[in-house]
Amino acid sequence: MSVKKHKQLLAKNRDEQQNILNLKMPLRARIEICRFCNLKCPSCPIGREKIKNKKVMSYDDFKIIIDKIKVSVEELSLFNYGEPLLNPNIVKMIKYAKKNGMKIINLHSNGLQLDKKLSNELIKSEIDYISFSIDGASNETYKKYRIGGDFEKVVRNVSYFIDLKRKLKFKKPVIAVQFIVMKHNQHEIKRFTKMWKDIGVDEVIIKTFNAYMSGYEDRRSNLKYLPKDSNYIRYSELRNSIFCFCYS
Predict the structure, then answer these.
(1) Domain membership of residue 145 as a residue range
(2) Pick from 148, 149, 154: which is nearest to 177 by CA?
């Protein structure tokens, strides 16, 4: 390589680094718009009653946050531990965030609140991505972890959502279903994947179990959920494996 070419590459690299340094931060944000849930999943801090301030975020508070972060944030996630669809202002919140420059808005839900009216409103809200935790291909398996849930209702709700998006001819949101691999459900991975691909979901996520979700002190009681197949265990001391697999 000539000295001239080398200097040109160095100059280009410096310019690229400066462009990165000039970016406004942060680029991503997560807002928990609901701090409670309609399920009692045993490894979740909400399911274990470890989160006490069970409230929904008001629309006014949400607008204040968006107005402060819109100068840099481009990707927004509207979930954490609680069930976001329990917030009655969720559609208004998505629309306000989109209006204020959020390029990508993500949502994760258990799907139990997804009735026909909300399905229609969500699809038309311009939300970009929504995933649903289901963790089973049968009611018997689903209810062992999603305590308080209704497997048939979730399948019916999400299936309707997928079909409605198709009928309305919308490209978004990308719709995913998630399966956390545990000891009691690992035998249904293939059945789950085929079932949802046949229904027409955009993406199937096979995810490893997080034993530390409700805190380090709860890890021992949560380790009992780890699957027998070590390929689906995320912890290096047990198995050096990948975090999740996506089929799209």
Answers:
(1) 28-247
(2) 154
Could you tell me the CATH number of the domain that includes residue 104? 3.20.20.70
Backbone φ, ψ for residue 167 (5° rounding): -65, -35
Quick check: bond before 173 cis, omega within 30? Answer: yes
The answer to whether 108 and 81 have CB atoms below 8 angstroms apart is no
Predicted local distance difference test score (pLDDT) of residue 210: 86
28 - beta bridge partners?
A: 75
Confidence of residue 21 (pLDDT cuts 50, 70, 90): low
- Please report the beta strands in the chain, taking only residues with DSSP state E, as ranges in sequence order: 28-30, 75-77, 104-109, 129-133, 174-181, 203-208, 244-247
8, part of any domain: no
Residue 79 located in a structural domain: yes
Lookup: tokens for 164: 């409605």
pLDDT tens digits for 165-220?
A: 999 999 999 999 999 999 999 999 999 999 999 999 999 999 999 887 767 677 77
Rounded-to-integer distance, Cα 129 and Cα 69, Å = 20
The secondary structure of residue 241, as a DSSP letter, is -
pTM of the model: 0.85
Phi/psi region, residue 133 (left: phi>0; alpha: psi -120 to 50; beta: rest), is beta
SS percent in the chain: helix, strand, coil, step 5 = 40, 15, 45
CA 224 vs CA 69, 81, 133, 137, 219: distances in Å: 40, 21, 20, 21, 9
Asked if residue 114 belongs to a domain, the reply is yes
- Residue 149: closest CA among 32, 225, 41: 41
